[in-house]
Amino acid sequence: MNGRKENQQPPGNGLIAILGAGSLGQLWAGYLPTGKVAFVPRPGSTAEPLAYNLERFDGSVHPVSVPWLNNPEENPSLLLVTTKAGDTLSALEPHLHDLPPDTPIVLFQNGMGNQQAVAERWPHHPVLAASTTEGANRPKPGHTVHAGKGETWVGAITEKARPHLTPTVQALATSGLTIHPEADIHQRLWDKLVINAGINAFTAILNCRNGDILNQQLYLEHIDALCTEMAAVLAAEGCRPLAPETIRQRIEAVARTTAKNTSSMLSDRQQGRPTEIDFINGYIARRGRAQGIDVPVNQMLTDQVRKLPQSPIRP
Ligand code: NAD
Ligand code: KPL
User: Is this prediction's pTM over 0.85?
Assistant: First the structure.
């Protein structure tokens, strides 16, 4: 990305840049119109276009080739950020001073804390967040699978992003994926956060699939207290109040419908990669403490996941 100079066109060339060429980034790049999408390279790296096969949800396999954004004239109309939550600030940092100040940035990370950190760091940029139930993985090099057909909600995080919501949704809809504008993205992120907080850490600690947590002692011993903590934090954070029992029902409904899934946190653990725990139970624990609410179960799950060995394990 290059700083806008006087003789350059303002953003509006229709190009969608994607920072984070992993599973979710490759999913979006594979569905967005060819020629309208490029990956943002790490500073100093140059490479041939990224080529891979995208296995669409209907089972059809399509070859995809996505260029890296290295033409100085290419100021994208939109920047999608599909790095892991813990990498987002450092990944954006080298690019933000060059990005025109009115180019919307859409954050796709699971969990919370990351969106607020980006908005605090760059309050004058239009920052939006996406909450998505699409699922993608890369079972082998060069092969990306659209494993779960979901939906994506996008909403404004910074004030400056509000006028950009409709054009951003329109641009993303050219992928053919299901996308909705969300007036209250904060609430939607919280709704997903409590589900992830009730499933992901248990699967990572117990090394089991989503459905299998439901009969495990660790889960049965702690789930009610966890839901009570989350209900109190939700209320203190100004979200729609939810009874602890409702939170537990929601968690268990998702654990059952995704019973055979390997959660994203267990998958990170199995591959020896850092998890997003600090943006899930860790975030709830931080917000709870800030609000004067006791959060021992969120803290215990965060501590246990942080202590897990950082080397690949067998599924
Ligand atoms: P991933 O690890 O497959 O992809 C992340 C990519 O970011 C990697 O290719 C990595 O090399 C790249 N990256 C890291 N630091 C970078 C930097 N400084 N500059 C450029 N690139 C950098 O992860 P993913 O599964 O695609 O998930 C991305 C985010 O989306 C996570 O927060 C995840 O929770 C969320 N999410 C993923 C899915 C999914 O199905 N994969 C679904 C919903 C939400
Ligand atoms: O979002 C998920 C994740 O794995 O991160 C759930 C809902 C738990 C599905 O696997």
Answer: yes
